[in-house]
């Protein structure tokens, strides 16, 4: 197998299996029912957002932090974010008492056997459709349009022969294995904003991402990025020297 063949195969494997999708769908159906039963008219909407709606979520086998972002929109404002986080925590403690539960602002984290849910309390904007306020720490709010990025990503992916999403998945896989050098969402947004002029296949798209990465200020993270760049340099050298087996073995150090 060539470098291109390996990366293409790994990108196609970096998706949720049908079994994982079915399990997640079942959990979401149960979650929806329980939220409606518990909160009733105190919530006006609830929906999935984030990487699981964009096609860039990784299976947990490739990213231990892989999760489902789930927004719960409350009907009555006027309180601090911590008030709503406390309400969500009481909810999960009632229905998911045997599961691992924690708070990680701005979310309540619910760890189930097959996936991690991050429940985000929100208030709907009275003036801008699709915009919400979500916690920015325990006492402040911030505005967000949770699915605004989806359209931008889809347009970019369509304009680049459907190579952007698999490139993001491969880059996120490297990031997870490297100990999360970058915030996952910020990393996705940065990749989408790159120009991929001149790139024509999966190898070129992925390598271009690493070519454009600067070295982080944190020494450990900088070493991880520099190692990735060095691997890619060596892969290119092997390919120029017509040594495909060596090139493939080398790229597997970046994307096993």
Structural overview:
50% of the residues lie in helices and 16% in strands. The chain is α+β, with helices and mostly antiparallel strands and 256 residues long. It is elongated, with a radius of gyration of 20 Å. It has helices spanning 3-13, 18-39, 51-54, 81-95, 148-159, 164-177, 184-192, 202-212, 219-240, 244-251, and strands at residues 43-49, 67-74, 100-104, 107-111, 116-124, 132-135, 141-144. Strands 1, 2, 3, 4, 5, 6 and 7 form a 7-stranded mixed sheet that branches. Helix 1 (3-13) packs across helix 6 (164-177) and helix 6 packs antiparallel against helix 7.
Write the layout of secondary structure elements.
Blueprint: H1 3-13, H2 18-39, E1 43-49, H3 51-54, E2 67-74, H4 81-95, E3 100-104, E4 107-111, E5 116-124, E6 132-135, E7 141-144, H5 148-159, H6 164-177, H7 184-192, H8 202-212, H9 219-240, H10 244-251
Parallel strand pairs: 2-5
Antiparallel strand pairs: 1-2, 3-4, 4-5, 5-6, 6-7
Helix pairs in contact: 1-6, 6-7, 6-8, 9-10
CATH level-two architecture of the largest domain? 2-Layer Sandwich
Tell me the Rg in angstroms.
20 Å
Question: What is the CATH T-level topology of the largest domain?
Answer: Beta Polymerase, domain 2
Number of helices: 10
Question: Percent range for helical residues?
Answer: 40-55%
Strand content: 15-25%
How far do the termini sit from each other?
Answer: 13 Å
Structural class: alpha+beta
Tertiary shape? elongated
SSE series: HHEHEHEEEEEHHHHHH
The domain count comes to 2
User: Biggest β-sheet: count, sense, barrel?
Assistant: 7 strands, mixed
Extract low-pLDDT stretches: none
